[in-house]
Design brief:
single chain, alpha/beta, eight-stranded mixed β-sheet, seven-stranded parallel β-sheet, 9 helices, 27% helix, binds zinc ion
Length: 342
């Protein structure tokens, strides 16, 4: 692939790097230079973009099988992490998505959710058979993690949904976390029901797959901020309405942020009316949790545009550091150095 450059009147390359008249040079799917155009040589093949350039978005909680990969990519999201789908389907799709010519985002996947026999989501109407993998003992749980690691999982998802059925025992949960950490994989938990966030914390879970929507004490929030990160998924709690769930979640997330916790953008795409592509209302809700606009963008991007980062970027019609609503105005998407749709 030849070297090509992008030039734009204004670009946000990553936190603290807002650049007028910017140039980004791309080669073999990676960024090889990014900064002021005056300091970086252009290429014969330079694409001039109007408006505002920033890194493309990564959605760290999706169920891509219930959405449109092409729509996700066209909407400015060049990488997703699938947190629950049958392994025979999702790992095949993830492999296919590695090709830059794939008409969709790069897909990373957890495979199925590990759960107790009869636990969530084995009886959920949205979940095809195999979306939940029932683990019967700590040994079985550890074996399931090892098998998923061999299949290419990039995270392990565990269902701690006490409102929808039984959950893995403390011993099984500990075995899941231990086996995942041996395989260098993070554990993401769906926590729902009284005491489940506390169980996740105690077992060494690395992420909450959703902002919890039941009130948490300051003590639990402080422990969570020190030990794990939260995937936002705020809009699924309200879809633009005012609900007790969104109020509780925003209160939890505000205190988590103040306590120094790490928040990453995720939409739970596939759940309800979440649109494919950048979900502006999710970004606006993260801002409501007290983050500055630049901090919101930092939760959303795949990686800052710097040397050796993926050559994934978007051009918007205007500057989202002034108004996040322009995240809906995606003009151009580039994945792995290729302009999408051309
Ligand atoms: Zn989900």
């Amino acid at each position: 692939m030849t070297r090509r450059s992008i030039r734009a009147p204004l670009a946000w390359l990553g936190p603290g790097r807002l650049v007028d008249d910017a140039r980004v040079v791309l080669e073999r799917g990676l960024v090889v230079a990014a900064g002021p155009a005056a300091e970086i040589a252009g290429t014969d093949d330079e694409l001039r973009l109007d408006g505002f350039v920033m890194p493309a978005v990564a959605d760290r909680h999706v169920h891509i099988g219930m959405s449109s990969p092409a729509g996700v990519l066209a909407g400015g999201v060049t990488a997703v992490r699938d947190l629950g789908w049958p392994p025979d389907l999702i790992f095949t799709l993830a492999d296919a998505s590695e090709l830059p010519s794939f008409d969709g985002p790069l897909i990373r996947a957890a495979g199925p959710m590990l759960t107790a026999p009869g636990g969530y989501p084995t009886a959920s109407s949205w979940a095809p058979p195999g979306t939940g993998r029932e683990v019967k003992s700590p040994e079985d749980a550890a074996a399931a993690v090892e098998e998923l690691a061999r299949l290419g999982a990039t995270a392990i998802k565990v269902a701690l949904n006490a409102e929808a059925g039984p959950t893995p025992s403390d011993a099984a949960l500990a075995a899941i976390c231990d086996a995942a950490h041996v395989a260098d994989l993070p554990v993401a938990a769906h926590t729902q029901g009284k005491g489940e966030v506390e169980r996740a914390l105690g077992a060494g879970v690395d992420e909450l797959a959703h902002t919890p929507w039941t009130p948490l004490s300051d003590q639990v929030i402080a422990a969570a901020a020190a030990r794990l990160r939260i995937v936002s998924t705020l809009d699924i709690l309200s879809f633009g309405r005012d609900t007790p769930e969104i109020r509780a979640a925003l209160d939890n997330l505000r205190r988590f942020h103040v306590a120094g916790g790490t928040i990453v953008y995720g939409t739970d795409l596939g759940n309800g009316d979440v649109p494919p592509g950048i979900h502006t209302r999710e970004a606006q809700l993260i801002r409501e949790a007290g983050l500055e606009r630049e901090e919101v963008l930092a939760t959303m991007i795949r990686a800052p545009l710097e040397v050796d980062a993926p050559a994934d970027l978007v051009a918007l019609g205007a500057n989202p550091l002034e108004d996040l609503a322009v995240l809906s105005d995606v003009r151009t998407v580039i994945r792995a150095g290729r302009v999408v749709g051309r």
